[in-house]
Amino acid sequence: MQITVELPNDFVAFQQANEIKRDIRLSYALWLFKSAKVTIGKAAELAGLDIYDFMSACKDNQIPVVDMDKQELIEELQGIAR
Questions:
Q1: Which of 3, 22, 31, 48 has the lowest CB atom count within 10 Å?
Q2: What are the tens digits of pLDDT across the range 43-53?
Q3: Burial (Cβ within 10 Å: 0-12, 13-18, ≥19) of residue 44
């Protein structure tokens, strides 16, 4: 699917079209992931990044990648170790 977005020239004059497209795709992917609408893998795919670069983008935007508290994580890790 292709979506067209009209942006005022003064907002985009300092960037190339491909940079704007990349930034919009990343922003949308981050929003979808943060809203739990897609998995991290699907969000990374939409952003055009590998999962590790997408995780880094999540960190840069203060979006948690692991959605569990400390105790849940400890229990999960203990279960894996068994």
A1: 3
A2: 999 999 999 99
A3: buried
